Amino acid sequence: MIAPSPIPLDRFKDSVQDRNNARFFPAEAYTSEEFYRFELEAVWFREWISVGRMEEIPEKGDYFTVNIGNEPVIVVNTKDGLKAMSAVCQHRGMLLTDQPKGNAKGFVCPYHRWTYDLTGKLVGAPQMDGVGTYDKDCLGLPRLAVEVWQDIIFINFDTEAAPLSERLAPLDPIVKDWGLTELRGEFLTDPNYRQTHDYDWNWKVYAEGQAECYHCDKLHSDIPGIQNIDCNSMHINVQDEERGVFAFEMRNKVIDATVNHVGTSIWPPIPTLSEEQRWEQHSIVISPNIFMQLMPDCVILLSWWPTGPGTMRIKRHRLYPQATMQRDDWVEQHKLESEHIRYFVGQDDYAFASVQEGLQSRYAPHGPLSNREFVINGMSKWLVERFERADAEARERASIKEPAE
Ligand code: FES
Ligand SMILES: [Fe+2]
Q: pTM for the full model?
């Protein structure tokens, strides 16, 4: 049940001004427990959320789990297609699995052995015959909507939500030549690779930090790949505030600039790119939880979701052509590349953790957006529209409930 926004929404009006006059959200929006609860209902339990890639669950029965806010979910590949459902057993509430991923024929609750098939249908429960409240058909796992775009899996708690593909259509021409469905995650070649990481900052600190290249040539000034990008050449290709999709582009100073220890590709370029595209860097934001960087030799895909008001989980993918991952020098060279990327990501982590601290100060800013942070302005507009919708709905519901005079 949605309650009205605990932060009056007129305090967000500075964030939805035109891009030259816009500010970040009020600091409380990044720290308040109550606002976090509101945001879960207004955004995370209504919108399409990116949770992973198809190559994570290629075989029938393959599944992974994800916990959005306080909602544990299983995403599973079945013979009837991809399914997403609650991981909460409908008998007593035990979680059906504590594994991040696996392969299953069905899900058996460890507590009293209620058994669900891969689609979430309850197929058996011991000692329930003759129980009046036991209706097998009504006790399946609650379903979520699921959709796949470019091999990226999205789920939606709102099973009536409008389809996602139409919303993402403006991005199709930009991603097309990177052939995202042909690329594969680096995790496939390293069984110890950790895809998810937990952090102590609000998800918007992260989302906003990814969506701007104001900091790139400053915080990351020692990174060769960043030195090879002309951050001043940044221009926007898609700023669709209604759909919450954004794409901006920068020009490389040298061909095949990429974020690694060398600064230019150590791998052959993605074969479907033109020479011109090898001079381009494309950044893509899909609200509320995707950032993608399209580079000449690979693609970075970041997805995230809140785990609390000041905590979040990130799932990272670096996607390469399969031929690159089959090269003899892959393991050795990729190790060097990965070490450098950890160093690069560590610079952002240091800033995000510190910002989260600063936002709790009595002197926390309600700062202006620079002219390299305009995507944040678009993301804010998309979010505030959702806050307003949920707030109005909550108020209407409350007014209906008020007893008549
Ligand atoms: S809680 Fe799952 S079978 Fe009882
Ligand atoms: Fe960064």
A: 0.96
